[in-house]
Design brief:
The protein is globular and about 45 Å long. It has a two-stranded antiparallel sheet. With 133 residues, the chain is mainly alpha-helical. Helix 1 (7-33) packs across helix 2. The chain contains six helices and two strands; from the N terminus they run H-H-H-E-H-H-H-E. The chain starts with 6 loop residues before the first helix and ends with a strand. The chain has helices at 7-33, 40-56, 62-67, 81-97, 101-112, 119-124; strands spanning 70-73, 126-129.
């Protein structure tokens, strides 16, 4: 874990994913359904994107690829569905239960910890690196 990635690269990767993937999905489903307030479809496809793309693309999402960073497991094994479910679903549950405080704590952890790991990284046994596969 010698090349872990800090807050700003991770933040920008997430922002790029939002602009490149999430926003177009929201617009497309808004146009298809005519319902601009209920984002269930785009939320579902965003979830599938964040869950499956890193499994299929060696830890990358589009935003992470552009930023040159990726998600890897601490034990060096390939990412799987279980790891990604822990990373997103269980972590989202923790963040919701703590009313967002866990999310804020995670942001500080990424910015201040030497290993740059957030709560969801600890839950899933992952970290974000700039190392190539």
């Amino acid at each position: 874990m010698s090349d872990s990635v800090g807050f700003w690269k991770r933040f920008l990767a997430g922002l790029l994913d939002g602009i490149i993937v999430s926003l177009p999905l929201a617009i497309i489903f808004g146009l298809i359904t005519g319902d601009w307030e209920n984002e269930n479809y785009s939320t579902f496809f965003d979830f599938l994107y964040m869950l499956l793309v890193p499994i299929l693309w060696y830890g990358y999402t589009v935003g992470k690829r552009i930023m040159g960073i990726r998600i890897v497991r601490m034990d060096g094994k390939k990412l799987g569905i279980g790891t990604m479910l822990l990373r997103y679903l269980v972590a989202a549950l923790v963040y919701a239960i703590t009313l967002g405080i866990g999310f804020i704590v995670s942001a500080f952890m990424v910015g201040l910890r030497k290993d740059n790991r957030a709560i969801h990284d600890f839950i899933a046994g992952t970290y974000v690196t700039s190392n190539r596969p």
